[in-house]
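Researcher: We're teaching a course module on how sequence relates to structure. For the next exercise, students receive a sequence and then see the predicted structure as tokens, so they can try to spot secondary structure elements on their own. Here is the exercise chain.
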Amino acid sequence: MRRRPDCDRIRAMKNQTGKLTITFGALLAGGLALAGGIWASSNLLAPASLDQDMLGATYLPEGRAVVDFQLLDHNGEPFTRDRFREQWTLVFFGFTNCPDICPMAMHQLAAVHERLDEKGIGDKVRTVFVTVDPERDTQETLAAYVPSFRGDFVGVTGDMEQIDVLARDLGIAHVRRGEAGDADYMVDHGSAILLISPEARLQAVFQAPHQVGRMSMDLDRILGFHRRQG
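Model: And here is the predicted structure for the students to work with:
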């Protein structure tokens, strides 16, 4: 009976130690969870890179500066590299006499813009149609053709030499097919759609066949990534 007070004290100390251990463990676990949450949130909001596997487009992480050139839009205004600095730009090369590929691509681009409008980022992107047939695609011809797909689409023409400067820089080949003097000649050309950043850098390439849903999702991801990085 004499030893009972000591036993009670020991038992009390054990209980208190257990509570301290549990409390410390809870604090440690909570701290680790908080730190993990902060780390996960920061990485979710500002990832270091864009996952290429999530994209249908070929994305260029660093982008590539676009060469300078001198062309005209369908309103007769100069269209140079600096015009790319106004906003994100989708560029498609084609010609108004194209029977199928060009009108299909332009309809798809109009549908992509509708999706972007629904996402609230439609004002961040525009589409530019660059002719590879300036002999027939005059300013007036483009003014009638390009906005018929969507009112804010921009047609671009000019000297073939300057068109070639931009086309070669963006990797678009084109070849005229037909005899000399043939008014119904055709032009074979690359069907890729190029995405140019507001820094006038080639940022992504959308190869055919183009899918409206895939393109709009890719653009949403790319623009969102650059917005978070900025």
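Model: If you want an answer key for the exercise: Residues 1-45 form one domain. The two ends are 76 Å apart (CA to CA).
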